Task: structure prediction
Amino acid sequence: MRRPRVAILSDLREEGWHAMDLVAEMLLLNLRAPEARAVDAIEVRPRLTPRLTRLPLLRSAAAADTADRILNRVWDYPRWLAPQVGEYDLFHIVDHSYAHLARQLPPGRTVISCHDVDAFRGVLPGTHGGSFVERALGRRLLEGLLCAQRILCCTDATRKQLIASGVVQSDRVLVVPHGVHPACSTLADAVGDRDAAAIIGEPDGNRVDLLHVGSTIPRKRIDVLLQILAALGSRYPRLRLIRVGGPFTTSQQRLVQHLQLQDRIVAVPFVTPRVLSAIYRRAALLLQTSDREGFGLPVAEAMACGTPVVASDLLALREVGGTSSTYAPVGEIEAWVSAVSALLDERARDLESWRRRRSEGIAWARRFDWRTHTMATVAVYREVLDAAQG
Result:
């Protein structure tokens, strides 16, 4: 008997949303494992077609890049997908930022993963913010989200936000937490450790490394991160920040110069999971300074690698970080400095407490497993397929 064909609709790779690429990659990898082969999973995504960025005068302009991305998402992707719809029994849109694709898919045959509600700011009842363009896109995305037979949220906090908005029925929204990459562990990896040392330098027992992983979009609050680093500098002269996730924006670079932090920061591009895991293991602490998050994958990854976390006091981050992580109010620099200082002092003076903290984080992080995520997702596929066939 033919297995159902499931189209995994992934982000345009050229957009560079590394977390969403990882979600699609790990889902596909595990869907193809023997225990999950109840379906045939096929990745479906076109290549981005450059338009404005091909023009010599606009090639480097951020506005041209944004326009190309929007055109490809909203115009090209749906039209490229349309002729292939009949080849699949079920469709899984792995990023809610592409939820608009569901509007042209067969009714009752779409699953959408919702990682946060940021894309719906100003559109969901009770929310505000976002530019005119963001709200216009948000409305299209929300229309697509409402076409989904099932919505998979990565945290209960995100699920509750969606349900509280009143736009979706609670029985259509399930919680399926993300996993962490298998490379994220406390075990030494000669290749990963070597490549990490080539980027951030050899280990130095006298140096203290803080770590931030992620993009530099506004909700990540890089301004708060930099102010924390500056405030800690006088107390910890060998302190530095490793920031993985590409270059600072122009305004962030200006703040770095204003705070005189140029010599305290190592900027690292997005790297392979093996190298990233080695960097996690080298860091004293991970700092997650965001003011909005749907999951906070670096929190789970850091704990899996044995690195304690200080995170913004958000429901989603508490859900992921558990009781072994430390939380500080969003944007309150003094509270962050106090929390980070206390942990660095514990690391230096109370080795037993520090080891216990690391062990608790490692144990907590074991619940974030891609195989578990995939099996829960397959169960949803079966439910949706049975309903559609019925």
